[in-house]
Design a protein that fits this description.
single chain; about 400 residues; alpha/beta; Single alpha-helices involved in coiled-coils or other helix-helix interfaces; Heat Shock Protein 90; six-stranded mixed beta sheet; 6 strands; about 10% strand; disordered N terminus; protein dimerization activity; phosphorelay sensor kinase activity; phosphoprotein
Length: about 400
């Protein structure tokens, strides 16, 4: 089976080889079974030629046919070979213009060189063609440049058209490869955002609860146990979200299992467990929000709440979710001072918000408020389409 697959891959090479063999058989008949005069005005009897000349003509015939057989794989070398054989035969008693094989081989190989050779293929083919026929007509003392140019145009024109089509096909293949690479990059970025959104929120809450449990371990054992229970609960939620993401990436998940703004109570409970307060106001029908926009809105809100838990623990977060006629608006603001510790945040959170919003052609703004606190304001078009995404602005790292 492997050999058959190899033959299938070499089908383009087998065609020229078969053509070369066929021409060699036909050319042998021309040499050894002459049916017509080979020189204009004369009836040349090839049987009367010395055996040496017949051997030379047979070798040149083999050269012509070898060039045809190799024109698919080595077009430039083949066109040089056929030109050399054509010129060499011009100095034999049998000129190459009248037998079918030499002229046919020259035309076929020049066509192949123009069509499939590299950058200098057309130039090499043109030089070989005109030099070969120029020398032959000079030796024969019968220059017919009108015929030579006509044949050149009839052969080179279609060959060049084939060359352009091949180049266009190669460009399309390269463009498809670039688009595939870009799609893979986008998918990796989307996975990175999902993983960040899932892990960052849960870990932030777990760290705060573990710290609270450590502080209260000696003074309030019951409260310490409650904090540890909260750590365990949030940890289970994170593991569940990660499993859900893996299932979706395998193509086994359904839209009903995706995060949604219609089911944010577990998200809010994590913030409240960490000691914060969350007030949510929803205006409009969340059922109108497309699934992709819904998931992105959920992740944006998750990142805004994680930002508040990390940088303003214990603050009150006010969230407004408005479903308009054309867009989804999310506004999250906390009233606590934004305390940024050294090394506290890499900026990936707000960067993820910006990337999500730009993907849908929406707008995002995030930064500290004048009177204290921090706010995140996002607008996502419900259509989820945009020809030119609007750049987002973020005012601080998360």
């Amino acid at each position: 089976m492997g050999w058959l697959r190899g033959v299938g891959r070499r089908r383009r090479d087998l065609g020229p080889v078969a053509a070369g063999l066929a021409l060699f058989g036909f050319g042998s008949l021309e040499l050894y079974v002459p049916l017509a005069p080979y020189v204009e005005g004369e009836s040349l009897d090839l049987a009367a030629l010395p055996a040496g000349w017949l051997a030379v003509l047979t070798v040149l015939l083999a050269g012509h046919c070898l060039a045809v057989a190799a024109c698919g794989s080595y077009p430039r070398a083949a066109v040089v070979l056929v030109g050399a054989c054509f010129v060499a035969q011009s100095f034999t008693p049998v000129l190459p213009e009248w037998p079918v094989v030499p002229l046919l081989a020259l035309v076929v190989v020049c066509f192949a060189c123009v069509a499939v050779a590299g950058r200098h293929g057309p130039v090499i083919a043109g030089v070989s063609y005109f030099v070969s026929l120029g020398i032959e007509t000079t030796v024969a003392d019968d220059p017919d440049w009108a015929f030579i140019v006509f044949v050149a145009l009839a052969v080179m024109g279609p060959a060049y058209a084939v060359r352009m089509r091949r180049a266009q096909a190669e460009r399309l293949v390269a463009l498809a490869a670039e688009r595939e690479a870009a799609a893979r990059t986008d998918e990796r970025l989307r996975m990175a955002r999902e993983l960040h959104d899932i892990v960052s929120h849960g870990v932030a809450v777990m760290v705060l609860q573990a710290g609270a449990a450590q502080v209260m371990l000696d003074s309030d054992v019951r409260q310490a146990h409650e904090s540890l229970d909260a750590v365990q609960e949030v940890g289970r939620d994170v593991v569940t979200e990660l499993r859900r993401l893996l299932v979706i990436l395998r193509g086994e998940g359904s839209l009903e299992r995706l995060p949604s703004l219609r089911h944010i109570e577990p998200l809010l409970a994590g913030v409240r467990t960490a000691g914060g307060r969350v007030d949510v106001a929803v205006n409009g029908d969340l059922g109108r929000v497309p699934a992709a926009v819904d998931v992105s809105g959920y992740r944006v809100l998750q990142e805004a709440l994680t930002n508040a838990v990390k940088h303003a623990p214990g603050a009150t977060v006010s969230v407004a979710i408005d479903v308009g006629r054309t867009d989804l608006r999310i506004h999250a603001v906390n009233d606590g001072p934004r305390i940024v510790r050294h090394g506290d945040g890499s900026g990936l959170g707000l960067m993820g918000i910006s990337e999500r919003v730009e993907l849908f052609g929406g707008t995002a703004a995030a930064g500290p408020r004048e009177g204290g606190g921090f706010e995140v304001r996002v607008e996502l078009p419900l259509s989820g389409n945009s020809a030119a995404p609007v750049p987002s602005h973020t005012g601080a790292s998360a």
